[in-house]
Design a protein that fits this description.
The structure is a homotrimer.
Chain A (H helix, E strand, L loop, with lengths): L2 H25 E3 L11 H22 L7 H25 L2 H6 L2 E3 L1 H21 L5 H25 L8 H18 L15 H23 L5 H28 L8 H6 L3 H7 L8 H30 L7 H22 L9 H4 L14 H30 L3 H6 L8 H22 L5
Parallel strand pairs in A: 1-2
Helix pairs in contact in A: 1-3, 2-3, 2-5, 2-8, 3-5, 3-6, 5-6, 5-7, 6-7, 6-15, 7-13, 7-15, 8-9, 9-11, 9-12, 11-12, 11-13, 12-13, 13-15
Chain lengths: ~450, ~450, ~450
C-alpha cells in the first residue's frame, strides 16, 4: 500500500477536524449566561438527552456487533462516525438557523445536542446497511455527505413544510435506511461465496442483544425527546411504550409462524421487536388512544417480520441489494409506515382534541399563532409531501454518494480476486468474503429454540 | 411434531394479543390533555421510570444469561414475557381501579407504566426459578396466570390492607420467588445426570455481571420509584444505597468464609450482592437512621450467602426443589426479611418523626386524612397480615399454576428418555439435560480467585 | 496456605464493616424530614447521580474487563472496592464537615452520595494501574489508605485553597493515576516473560468497549454533576460533549498515524477517546467558547495517544513502571492537562463574563459574598497550588501505600519462582505470568482494521 493510502484516513479526518475547529471558533457561541430570559436549564431536558445519547453510542454500536469478525469494528466505527457527525451536524444546523442569518453566529444548548445525536442516528442506520463493505475513509466521507443531505431534509420538513414528524421516524429512520439502500444498490456485488470455516456466534448475538434491549428500553425517550408541551411528550412516551410491547409480542408470534418448525428467529428478535417504536414515531405525540398505539405496534412488526422472511431474500436475489443488518425491515418499511400513519392520524382525529397543544403538533393549523391556514386535509397533504421529500432526497443522495464512494466495486469484485492490484480494494474483498461467510453462518444458526 | 404443537405458541399468543387490543380499545384511555388539573407531567417521574425499565429489560435479562446454552433464550424470553405482562398488567390493574368502577374506563400515565414494569419483575423472578425447564408456551401461560394473581395481591396489600411495602419487596420479590418455587416443587425432577462436555463459561458470567451491576446501580430507583412525597423518596434512595454497599462487602466476606480455601464464589457475587436492596425494600421509605440501613444490608447478605451455601443444596436433596438461578436466596429469603423489617420499623420508630409524611407511609394511621385508627402495634399486625397474604397467595398460585403447566413431568422424566413419544416433552428433556450439565460445570468453575 | 492467610480477607473486611456500622450509628444521620428549609429534593440531582453511579459500577468495571483471564475478577473486585469506599468516604467526609465539628453528627443526602461515588472513581483508577498484581486483601487496604488521602486532598483543594476543579479532573483523575503509578513504582517487577498460549481476546475487548462507551456517554454528567448554578452546569455538559467529540475524532486520526500501516489500535480507542472529557474536567464549568472545548479535546487525545505509543513503553523499559490498563495516558497526563487548562482559563477570561456565577466557580474572587481578595492572577496561582498539592499527595501517598502493601515483591519475583514457599506470593506470581501473557497477546492483536 502506498503512503497516501495508508495515511488517507488520517489526513482526511485531520482536514475535517481542523475545519470544524475553525468554524466553531468563528461562528459558534454558548447561550449568554447573563441573559436570564434565554437561559436554557439543563435539568428539564438533560435526562431525556442522556437516554438518547446512550441509544446512539451503546445501543446502535452493539446492535451492529452481531458479526463475529466485525463486532469490534462496528462498535468503534460507530463511535468514530458519531463523534464526527456530532460536530458537523451542529455546525450545519447552526448555519441554517434564523439566528445565524440575523447575527452571524449561532448558539448551542441541550436541544442542539439532541439534534446532533439524531443526526448520528441517521448515519448509523445507513452504516448498518453497508457494514463490512466499506473502509473507514469511505465511511467518513459517507458521514460527511449524508449528514449534509440529512440536515437539509430536516430543515425542509420541519421549518418549511411544517410537518409533524415527532419521533423523527421519517427524517431519521426512513431517510437513513433508504439512503443506505440506494448506496448499496450502486455498490452491489455479484457472487455469494460459501466459506468453510465454522463457528458459533452465540456471544456475538448476546452482544447484539445489549444493543437491541437498550434501544428497546429508551425508544420512548427517543420519540419524546423533542416534544413539547408536556402533554405531547407524555403521549409520545406512552404511545411508544405500548407500540413496543404489542410489537414485540407480535414479532415472536410471526417469527414462530414463518418458521417451518415453529421456532423463533434471532434476527427477528434483534430487529423487528423495535419496529413498533419506529412506526409510531412520526405521530407518537398525536395518537390519542392507547389501542391505536397497540394496533400500530402490531402492524409494524407484521411488515417487519414479513420483510425479513420474504422481501429481503427477493431484493437480494433480484436486485443484488445486500443489507448487512436488515436495516430495511427495521428502519425502512416501518419508517414509511410511520409516515402513512402520520397522515391517517392527521386526517382522523378532531383537531379540538389537542387543545392548545394542536399548534405545537401542527404549527400551521388554522387559528394558531403562526397564522396558518391548514385544515386536516391540507395538513395530511403536507405530511405526504414531507414523506415524499424525505424519501426522494434519501434515494438521490444515496445514489450520488454510492456512485462517488463505491465506484465500480461490483465489477472489480466480480473479476478474479487475486489479480486485483489495488490493496485497498483487496481489503474490501477480503472483508467481503468474511462478511458473506458470517451472514451464511448466521442464517444457519438462526433458530434459538 | 404435529402442526398444533408447532403452531401452539403462535396461536395462543395471537389470541392473547387480540384480546388485549380489544380490551385496550374498549376500556383504556389517556389522561385528558385539556384537563390541566389531572395532567401528569412526564418530567418528574420519568427518569426514575427509565431506571426501572432498564432494570427489567436489560438487568433481569442478562442476570439470567449465565447459562452458556441459555443466554440468548433467557434474554429473549425475558423480552417476550415482559412485553406480554406489560399489557396484561395494565389492563388488570385498570379493571381493579376505582376509576373503572365509576366510569367504565380507566386512564394511563407514567405511574401506570411503573406498575406494569413492576409486574414484569414478578414474572421474571419466577422465570429465574424455572429457566431452562419450560417451553415458551408454558412460560406464556405462566405469565398470564401469575400476573393475575400478582395484581390481585397488589390490590389487597395496598388498597385493602394499606400495608407499607415501599420498594415492593413483598409483592414483587417474595411473591415472585415463592410462586416460582411452589411451581418448581410440582414440576420437580428426579435424577441429576453428569455430562461429559467441557467448556468455559467465562463470557457467560461476564454477561450475567452486566445484569447484576445494572440491578445494583438502579436498585435505589426501584425502591424509590413510587414513593412520595420527596422526603420519603429521598430516604428510600439513601437507605437502599447504604444497604447495597454494606451488603456487598458482607457478601464478599461470607463468600470467602464459606469456602475452604477462602476464595470468592461468583454465584454469590452475582446474586447475594443485591440482597441488601431487597431486604430494605419494604421499609426503604421508613428507615430513619443510616446505620439501620447498613445493618439491614449486613443481615440480608448474611442470610443470602448462607442460603446459597447450605439451604439450597438441602432443598435440592430433600425436596427435589431445583432453583435454576438461585432465586430463593436473592429474592425469596431477603423478601421475607424485608417483611419482617417492615414490622420491626413500624413498631420501633416514633410516628411523630415522619411529620406529615406519616400518612403517605401508613395511610390509615390515626389522625390522618383517611380517618384511620391504627397505632404502631395495629400497623405492625397489618404488615404481618400483608406478608401472610402475599406468601400464601404465592404458594397456592404457584402450586396451582405448576400443576396446570407441568403435569407429570417428574414421572415422565424419570422414565426412559428415548422411549418418550411426545416431541415437546423430548424438547424439555433435552433442555433439561443440558441445563444440569451447565449447572454442574458452573459449580466446578465457581471460584474466581 | 495457613488458616490466617485463607481467612485474612474475611477477617479484615469484617473488621472494617463492623467499624463502619458503629461509626454510622454514632455520627451519621439523615436530613430532618420535618425541616423543610434543609430538605434536599431528590428530583433535581438524582438523575445526574445515577449517570455517575452507572459510570462507576458498570463503566469502570467493564473498562477493566479487557484481560481475558481477569474480566470477571476486574468486574467483581471493582464492585467490592466501590461498596467499601462508598461507606468509608461518606464517613471521612462527614468527619471533616463543618456540621460535624459544630454538632458532633453529620447528615447525608444526594450530594454526599455523589461525593462518595467520586471517591470510588479515585480508587478504581488506581486499581487500573495495579490490576492483576494484587490480592483482594491488598486491594482492600489500598482502598482504605487511598480514600483517606484522597478525601484529605479534596478537603484541602476545595475548602481551604478554594480551587476550581469542577469535573474533579485533578482530585479524581490525576490523583488516582499518580497514586497508582507511585505504588506500582515500588512494587515493580523485573522480567517480562513470553508465554506460549494463544487466544483471541475479541470478546473481552467488546466487554471493555461497554465500559468505554458508558464512560463516554455519561462523561458530561460526571463533569456537570456537582456544578451550580444552572448555567455552570449547562456549560459543563456542553464543553464536555464537544471535547469528547473532537477528542474521539483526533484519537482515530493519531491512532492511524502512529501505526506503520495506518490501522487503528484498539487500546487507543478504548482509552484515548475518553481523554477529552478528563482534560476539560477542571474547567468544564468555566470554558466560555465552544471552540475552546473542541481545542482542549484535540490536545488531550494528542497527548494521550502519544503517551500510549511512545511514553508508556519508555517508562516500562527505563523505570520498570507497569501500568496494566494504561491509566497514565487516560487519567494521568490528561488530568495534569486539565490542571494547566484551568490555570489558562482562569487567567484568560474576563471575570465579568460569568456574572453572578463567578463566585460559584471561584468562591474567593474579589467582590463576592466570601469577601475574597483574589484577582485573575492570584486565582491562577491557587489553581497551580491545587495541582501541586494533589500531585504531591498522590505521589507520596502512593509510595507509602506501595511500600506498605507490596514489600519486596520485586525481589521475590526475580528469584526462582517455584522455590518460593509463600503460597500467597505464588498466587501473585502465577497471576503475574498470566497477566504478562495477556498483555503481550493483546499487543499482538491490537490492530482492528
Amino acid at each position: 500500500m502506498c503512503v497516501w493510502q495508508r495515511r488517507q484516513f488520517s489526513l482526511l479526518a485531520l482536514f475535517f477536524q481542523m475545519i470544524f475547529l475553525i468554524l466553531f471558533s468563528l461562528f459558534c457561541r454558548y447561550i449568554d449566561p447573563l441573559d436570564d430570559s434565554k437561559r436554557i436549564y439543563s435539568g428539564t431536558d438533560y435526562p431525556l438527552f442522556q437516554d438518547v445519547h446512550l441509544m446512539i453510542f451503546v445501543g446502535f454500536g452493539f446492535l451492529m456487533a452481531f458479526l463475529k469478525r466485525y463486532g469490534f469494528s462496528a462498535v468503534s466505527v460507530n463511535l468514530l462516525l458519531s463523534a464526527f457527525v456530532i460536530q458537523w451536524a451542529m455546525l450545519l444546523r447552526g448555519f441554517l438557523s434564523k439566528q445565524f442569518q440575523e447575527t452571524g453566529t449561532f448558539t448551542l444548548g441541550v436541544p442542539e445536542m439532541m439534534c446532533a445525536d439524531n443526526s448520528c442516528a441517521v448515519v448509523l442506520i445507513t452504516m448498518g446497511v453497508l457494514l463490512g463493505r466499506m473502509t473507514p475513509v469511505q465511511f467518513l466521507l459517507l458521514a460527511f455527505f449524508e449528514t449534509s443531505f440529512s440536515v437539509l431534509v430536516d430543515h425542509i420538513v420541519f421549518n418549511i413544510l411544517h410537518v409533524n414528524d415527532g419521533g423523527r421516524s421519517l427524517v431519521v429512520h426512513a431517510f437513513g435506511a433508504y439512503f443506505g439502500l440506494a448506496a448499496a444498490l450502486v455498490g452491489k456485488k455479484k457472487n455469494v461465496m460459501e466459506m468453510d470455516e465454522q463457528g458459533s456466534i452465540h456471544h456475538s448475538d448476546l452482544f447484539s442483544m445489549i444493543g437491541t434491549l437498550l434501544l428497546w428500553v429508551f425508544f420512548p425517550s427517543f420519540n419524546a425527546a423533542v416534544q413539547e408541551p408536556e402533554d405531547a411528550r407524555h403521549r409520545a412516551i406512552m404511545n411508544t411504550y405500548l407500540a413496543m410491547a404489542s410489537g414485540t409480542v407480535t414479532t415472536f408470534i410471526l417469527s414462530s409462524l414463518v418458521d417451518n418448525l415453529g421456532r423463533f428467529n434471532m434476527i427477528h428478535i434483534q430487529s423487528s421487536t423495535l419496529s413498533g417504536g419506529v412506526a409510531i414515531g412520526s405521530a407518537a405525540n398525536a395518537v390519542l388512544y392507547p389501542s391505536h398505539a397497540v394496533a400500530v405496534g402490531i402492524c409494524a412488526s407484521f411488515v417487519s417480520v414479513i420483510g425479513h422472511a420474504w422481501l429481503s431474500p427477493k431484493l437480494e436475489k433480484r436486485f443484488k441489494l445486500y443489507d448487512t443488518c436488515g436495516v430495511h425491515n427495521l428502519h425502512g418499511i416501518p419508517g414509511i409506515l410511520a409516515g402513512i400513519f402520520s397522515i391517517i392520524f392527521a386526517l382522523g382525529y378532531e383537531p379540538e382534541s389537542y387543545g392548545k397543544t394542536l399548534y405545537h403538533i401542527y404549527p400551521h393549523f388554522e387559528g394558531g399563532p403562526m397564522n396558518g391556514e391548514r385544515n386536516r386535509e391540507i395538513q395530511a397533504v403536507y405530511q405526504l409531501a414531507g414523506m415524499g421529500v424525505t424519501l426522494a432526497t434519501a434515494v438521490v443522495g444515496g445514489l450520488m454518494t454510492g456512485t462517488l464512494l463505491l465506484p465500480g466495486q461490483a465489477d472489480r469484485r466480480s473479476a478474479d480476486f487475486q489479480s486485483d492490484s489495488s490493496e485497498m480494494s483487496q481489503w474490501v474483498q477480503h472483508n467481503w468474503r468474511f462478511l458473506e461467510q458470517e451472514l451464511l453462518e448466521r442464517e444457519r444458526l438462526h433458530e434459538i429454540y
